[in-house]
Amino acid sequence: MFQPMFQTAKLTLLSLCLSTTLALSAGLSISLAADQVGTVTQLEGDVKLFSEPSKTLQKDDGDPRPRALFQGEYYRVQEVKVGDRINQGNILRTALNGKARVVFDNGDQFHVGPGTSYRIFWDADSAKTNTRLNLVYGKLRGVIAKGGPRSRLQVKTKAATMGVRGTEFFIAENGLDGETEISIIRGSVQVQSSANQTKPIELKSGFSANIATGQVTAPKEVQESAQMAPKPEKMVPVIELRKTTQEDLAGIQKSSEIKAPEAGAPALSQEMKTQLASLEKKAIKTTLTDIKTYDPKLYAKLDTANIKTADQIHVQTVKTLIQTAPKAAEKRKPFKSELDNLEQGAYEKYFKIVE
Q: CA-CA distance, 101 to 82, in Å (whole number)?
């Protein structure tokens, strides 16, 4: 008589333990996913959000938002507002007059420059979270906390794949020719060209790199000399390294600065103001911790007591770095950090508005 009751109790206990484990796992996954969702804290100009991707076009569903076709999926398109959350698979796009700042709950930041489009997504489980960001075109400045939710961040462009493990960086991607430029303000980033299977290189603070979409044809004089050499297959490297210049730094700062809201801008609720103030404090803390880790000399120069916004820190960082950075050569092609028209023609190439 007692054996069936004992077996029932065992099954009940097993079910309870299994249910508890699943509930804890689900709760952890939700928590990890929430860590990956960023909030738009600043805006300037025309910024749009592409959300709710679908393989099929939903017509006459009562949703007045226009739809856009991108890489085989249909997205809802809407104007971005301060406080909007950037979720899994969303695309944030700034027009040529637009900029945006996205802050995450731990203080990580993306400064989205003009003429930019990026998509973010992630895989979350109980062991690790891999965040991936596809920069379709444009400019992006990021501050990523070492050991934080995005400490395994992977940034992809047409020309390169970059592994960010905690640093401040800037990436510019030309949507038309596909060439990528990356500059490291602090820390280091693993950079690998998409054109070959070579091992990634480590790009450290104070250096920039240009990555082409394929092997660059050698100049005529190199080709002629190669014909006489034992190994005529010699080619110019795909990744071109240089020291980050004063012009680079000035361009980075210009693309990431956002003007204060104009008079007449929609008023924010007290709840939203409180939320934004909390995010700003976290952004300040994350940025200062990053500087203290990678650049203690700069940290010692900062008047941390009077810092009200993370942007103050970013401005001071660039001003300090410019003092020791080299000037660019007079005769050269412009760096992508200096250009304002990276998006020119790219939107029409990648996105198609569907009425």
A: 9
Beta strands in 95-225 (DSSP E): 99-103, 109-112, 116-124, 129-144, 153-156, 160-164, 167-173, 180-186, 188-193, 201-204, 207-211
Residue 2 has pLDDT above 70, yes or no: no
Give the position of tokens 């103050």: 312
Q: What separation in angstroms does the CA of 170 have from each of 141, 145, 232?
A: 4, 15, 36
Q: What span, in angstroms and rounded, lies between the C-alpha atoms of 282 and 38?
A: 13
Enter the tokens of residue 88: 């899994």
The DSSP bridge partners found for residue 242 are 208
Check if the beta carbon of residue 279 is closer than 8 Å to that of residue 156.
no
pLDDT tens track for 51-95: 988 888 877 777 888 888 888 889 999 999 999 999 988 999 999
Question: What tokens were used for 103?
Answer: 């802050």
Q: Which fold does the domain 97-260+330-336 belong to in CATH? A: Jelly Rolls (2.60.120)
Distance CA 74, CA 285 (A): 38
Separation in Å, CA 199 to CA 138, 194, 239, 274: 26, 11, 12, 46
- Report the distance separating Cα 33 and Cα 85, nearest Å: 13
In the chain, domain spans: 97-260+330-336
How many degrees, rounded to 5, is the angle at CA 63 between CA 58 and CA 66? 75
Q: List the Cα angle 44/48/49 in 5-degree steps.
A: 130
Assess whether pLDDT exceeds 60 at residue 159: yes
DSSP string for 201-250: EEEETTEEEEE-SSPBPPPHHHHHHHHHSS-TT--B-SEEEEEPPHHHHH
Cβ-Cβ contacts under 8 Å for 8 (sequence gap 6 or more): none
Cα distance between residue 185 and residue 295, in whole Å:
10
SS3 content of the chain, % helix, strand, coil (to 5): 30, 30, 35
Q: What is the dihedral of CA 333, 338, 339, 343, to 10 degrees?
A: 130
